[in-house]
């Protein structure tokens, strides 16, 4: 062998990815760089801290506005003097009127809603306006406006992700994944639902669940939730008794599922109409909050349950502590006041108000059913149907189901009837073309069409099944061996 040179095979490059037979294509077998995972950890910590601070601000505003020291919000507002209801909501009206006008004049690019940013704005959120909008949202919810508290931490997590993605120079598809994960982490931290928050990011915001997407979304939500535990604790949001499954619940789920789906369609269409009524001229932006919040203050004098996001109402209905008459009244008024609050342009979430409406509807249906076939406790029907209504309205059957499981942590025995109701309600809502509560509130003008197409392309990049077409869809420049250059986040 003298005089011959034996070729030496180069050592294979070390990769973060692990090819597996059940996953194909660039988007799924690809790994992420160490810098990307560092970004995920930082985002989780920042979002958890933000959720803790926002939750503390919410509690402070509630206690100051309604003059109570401890206990649930519903007990505090029910015991408060009537003038406090009026004063708190007039202050909220002033904040919304002034805040929306000021926020509209702050320069910045990107969407004002997380869903808008992910779907049509290249996952870009202006940082300071988003944080200001989140703070405004949590303050007015504490003052009694009938919207959800999750909007604030979602905005904080998503805006932080957008800013960090700029610093890390991530490609568009990774930016979308990070922004959706940040929003899901904010959701997870404030409600203590790490798995539900990750599924919300994937199923509701990104519309796709795949192996490379699950891990960053789950890691962000888990880290944010663990950080928030330091101040918010680990208790579930709702305390339930031990419900036992009964054949009557299964038959009720079969019969009630389609009814719940139809009501979910009406609710989503109501949100769509309310969003279209949001004022654009400054005179209307001032007048609308004072008119709507003033009416809410008057309605809250006999029905304090209308104030806030509805958490207390869900708790009472879930244990069967609301009378049939009150269930019916709140079922009519809660959707109306929530849609009216949204129509003013006030920022806020829709998650808990939607769950509240679903629980009220199911409580009404369950009350009638227990007289036909007794045997199961009334509160169980409220939770079964509430989960189905939430899933149908969110267009997220998995995330809706898991969120109810994590919010209660004492619900697994009712899994079968809940799954039946979730499937039927979601199919009905989809069959009749109802959007989700998150897309229904957006105003998408024709100029956004290009952004929407880019969103679809970015998500297709995540699930792309042809490894040979990688260069055509991957915005990250690559060397001959398919790896990104040094210092670039791997796809």
Largest β-sheet summary: none
Number of domains: 2
Gyration radius, rounded = 24 Å
Q: Could you list the spans in which at least 5 consecutive residues all have pLDDT below 50?
A: 1-16, 24-30, 446-451, 458-491
Structural class: mainly alpha
CATH architecture assignment name of the largest domain: Orthogonal Bundle
CATH class of the largest domain: Mainly Alpha
Tell me the fraction of residues in β-strands, as a range.
under 5%
Q: What value does the average pLDDT take?
A: 85
CATH superfamily of the largest domain: Clc chloride channel
Outline the fold blueprint.
Blueprint: H1 26-29, H2 34-66, H3 73-79, H4 82-105, H5 114-120, H6 127-142, H7 151-168, H8 172-191, H9 194-206, H10 211-232, H11 247-276, H12 282-300, H13 311-318, H14 324-343, H15 351-372, H16 378-394, H17 397-408, H18 415-431, H19 437-440, H20 449-462, H21 470-473
Helix pairs in contact: 2-6, 2-7, 2-8, 2-10, 4-6, 4-12, 6-7, 7-8, 8-9, 8-10, 9-10, 9-17, 11-14, 11-15, 11-16, 11-18, 12-14, 13-15, 14-15, 15-16, 16-17, 16-18
Structure description:
There is one protein chain. Residues 1-16, 24-30, 446-451 and 458-491 have low confidence and may be disordered. It is built from 21 helices and no strands. It has 491 residues and is mainly α. The longest helix has 33 residues, at 34-66. 53% of the residues are buried. It is 67% helix and 0% strand.
Question: How would you describe this structure in keywords?
Answer:
globular; single chain; mainly alpha; Clc chloride channel; 67% helix; 491 residues; disordered N terminus
């Amino acid at each position: 062998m003298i005089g011959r040179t034996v070729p030496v095979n180069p050592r294979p490059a070390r990769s973060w990815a692990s090819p597996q037979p059940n996953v194909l294509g660039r988007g799924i077998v690809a790994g992420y760089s160490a810098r990307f995972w560092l970004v995920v950890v930082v985002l989780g910590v920042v979002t958890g801290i933000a959720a803790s601070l926002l939750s503390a601000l919410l509690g402070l505003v509630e206690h100051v506005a309604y003059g109570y020291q401890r206990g649930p919000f519903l007990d505090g507002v029910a015991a408060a003097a009537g003038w406090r209801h009026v004063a708190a909501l007039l202050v909220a009206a002033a904040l919304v009127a002034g805040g929306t006008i000021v926020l509209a004049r702050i320069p910045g690019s990107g969407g004002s809603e997380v869903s808008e940013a992910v779907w049509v704005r290249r996952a870009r959120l202006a940082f300071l306006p988003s944080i200001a909008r989140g703070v405004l949202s949590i303050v007015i919810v504490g003052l009694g406006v009938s919207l959800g508290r999750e909007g604030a931490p979602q905005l904080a997590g998503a805006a932080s992700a957008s800013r960090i993605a700029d610093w890390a120079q991530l490609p568009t598809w990774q930016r979308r994944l990070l922004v959706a994960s940040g929003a899901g982490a904010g959701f997870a931290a404030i409600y203590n639902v790490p798995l539900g928050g990750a599924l919300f990011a994937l199923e509701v915001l990104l519309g796709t669940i795949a192996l490379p997407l699950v891990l960053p979304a789950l890691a962000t939500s888990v880290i944010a939730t663990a950080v928030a535990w330091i101040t918010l604790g680990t208790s579930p949001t709702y305390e339930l008794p031990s419900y036992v499954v009964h054949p009557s619940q299964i038959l009720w789920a079969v019969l009630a599922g389609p009814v719940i789906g139809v009501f979910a369609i009406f609710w989503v269409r109501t949100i769509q109409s309310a969003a279209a009524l949001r004022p654009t001229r400054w005179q209307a932006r001032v007048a609308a909050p004072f008119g709507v919040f003033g009416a809410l203050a008057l309605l809250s004098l006999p029905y304090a349950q209308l104030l806030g996001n509805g958490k207390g109402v869900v708790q009472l209905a879930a244990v069967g502590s609301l009378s049939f008459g009150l269930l019916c009244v709140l079922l009519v008024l809660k959707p109306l006041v929530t849609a009216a609050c949204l129509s003013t342009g006030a920022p806020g979430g829709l998650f808990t108000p939607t769950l509240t409406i679903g629980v009220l509807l199911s409580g009404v249906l369950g009350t009638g059913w227990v007289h036909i076939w007794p045997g199961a406790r009334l509160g169980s029907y409220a939770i079964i149907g509430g989960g189905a209504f939430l899933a149908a309205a969110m267009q997220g059957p998995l995330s809706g189901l898991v969120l109810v499981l994590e919010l209660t942590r004492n619900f697994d025995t009712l899994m079968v009837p809940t799954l039946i109701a979730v499937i039927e309600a979601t199919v009905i809502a989809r069959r009749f073309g109802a959007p989700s509560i998150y897309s229904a509130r957006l105003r998408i003008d024709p100029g956004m069409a290009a952004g929407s197409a880019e969103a679809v392309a970015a998500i297709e990049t995540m699930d792309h099944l042809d490894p040979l077409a990688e260069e055509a869809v991957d915005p990250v420049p690559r060397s001959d061996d398919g790896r990104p250059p040094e210092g670039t986040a791997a796809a």
